[in-house]
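Example (one chain per record):
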Amino acid sequence: MSTVIAYWNILRKDIENYYLKPPNISWGIIFPLSWTLMQLIRSSGNIEIIELLPGLMAMSILFGTTSMLAVTITFEKRGRSFERLLIAPISIGTLVWAKISGAIVFGIINAFVPLLLAALLTTLEGINWIMVFMATLLIAITSTMLGLMIAVSAKEVFEAQTMSNFFRFPMLFLCGLFIPLSQLPTVLRPISYLLPLTYGTDLLNGAIRGSSMLNIYIDILMLIFFAILLFYICHRNINRKWIR
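Predicted structure:
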């Protein structure tokens, strides 16, 4: 019971203090929508909203979760709040899940913002909603873990955001968000399969457009694998960098 209470109190504090910070709103919502608007203008109306929706949802999750962790982790490291959390009678695993749960929820909410906007502009018939939610959840978890891994190494918010951009922007072009993997140079395709967002985007494409490149079970298994791997890396880095 004490673990559940500690988990909830940490999560509630993050919700109250960090969720509506300007970096989260701008990077998590405004930037993906601006990018999509640019795509529509560039295409002169030849691309339908439904074709851009999987990429927009995946990008909204990616930028929202990583921006959230950049704020929460770096602020608390600078304010030495983690020193008080680390001496609390809870495990490191509970602490990590409490810190990332808010970012996961924030990423899921971000994903459904463009979905609601798309519903106002076009019909959403034929969508596999169960797979959409599963893909959204798995992308949110893996993206949050990636953001935590970056934030652990940063000292300031701007530093964490800058480091995140080294991962986020290449993913826009290597994960099939807007450029199909079949159109990438052959030398870059192996890199695409090493990125978790590739499988998340493919799963969303299959659920929304019915045009996934891989088997959906492969996508799900790979996303679970990346989630476990990134959690292990984050857990190890926290033990090494936060606990002296």
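Caption: Residues 93 and 235 are 7 Å apart (CA to CA).
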